[in-house]
Design brief:
The chain has ten helices and 18 strands. With 429 residues, the protein is an alpha/beta fold. Strands 1, 2, 8, 9, 10, 11, 17 and 18 form an eight-stranded mixed beta sheet that branches. It has an eight-stranded mixed beta sheet with strand order 5-6-4-13-14-15-12-16, with helices on both faces. α1 packs parallel to α5, α1 (36-47) runs parallel beside α9 (371-386) and α2 crosses α3. The model has no long low-confidence stretch (mean pLDDT 93).
Amino acid sequence: MTLKELPFWWDTATMPEADSTLPTGNVDVAVIGSGFTGLAAARALAKRGARVAVLEAETIGWGASSRNAGMTLTGLKVGASASFAKYGRDLTRRMFAASVASIDCVEQVVKEEAIDCNFSRSGHLEVACKPAHFADFAHSAEVMEKEFNHRVRLIDKNDLRNEIGADIYHGGLVDEVSAGLNPARYVAGLAASAKKAGAALHDRTRVERVERDGTTFRVNTSRGFVSAKNVFVATSGYTSRATPSLQRKIIPIGSYIIVTEQLPEALAREISPRDRMIFDSKNFLYYYRLTPDKRMLFGGRAAFFPESAGTVRESAEILRRGMLEVYPQLREAKVEYAWGGTLDFAFDMMPHAGRLRVDGIFYALGYAGHGVALATYLGTKMAETICGDKVDNPFAELPFPGAPLGLYDGRPWFLPFAGAWYKFLDWVS
């Protein structure tokens, strides 16, 4: 069977049709990007009567929102102790609470819009690659219960077989609040609900420049221009020179996924008895899960650079070797899909959502691999902000750093060095 170099999820979903002509006159909000963030914002804005135009460079939902693993997770990339030291206890607690509320937000949208996306509160399992990592899990569990009133469960190495059909790990940590879904079906459902509410969706409409035009914005695109009272940037890892001040604050990092053929029921049950969203404790991590039709989806930072034909094929081989290290019993399973996508990391590895002081553009990005839930949540919160509501958004209170000494123009020349550094940290940790 020929390997399909495209996201498995694309074969399971159909996006709604886009609008053929750009709007005339002023729109209330021009939303740049049609992923979870942009569509959640467009849906919320349109439901409140705003005239909204969603501008997408490719096809609707084309980017990371339809390419990810569908893991809808609690927590943030930065751990609690580091966050306490940098941001203080109150702000850290509010950010963690927002990460939990974001999963409720996704669940509510799925129910309200009747989106058929296999949403399930299956929980997540983090597995310890070294004994010291499991000791860190125990500390994390104590902190989460004490500081966040959030309970997770430690799984001793001897009991780990009840959670995962692999013997290479030294224990695990389970959070039952996390969920899984089919991301392409979810983003298609968000798009359909935004369109139903009255938002206009424009694909193949690449934003080339955003200019302040008096009290409004002129958004220049590959198909003409749109006049807008407000602009909301929701481009994540695909943030471009159209918004240079944001591009200089976001690092695009490649992540890659393979998906096997459908597995026999008994084998699927053996490798993931509880259908968890699973990821390991390394910096250069692997993440994996069963798809709803019982395939193994296995992903990781096989290459830090964003996807190309070469990096996808190279990464597919790396990931297959990694999958067999975890699951030798999948040696005969054929890999049917391989693809890449681009994540958005800020320099502090934290999400950011607010408004630029210089030109008044709104934004939400920097999810660092936690975007399925947080993107929906922050897209909705920023819609409320744009409408003039007083919103509790802890991520708007964070400083949004750029590169040290300003040595970054949006082209991530340092990614090979970053990859080598994280591999070194995994070796010594």
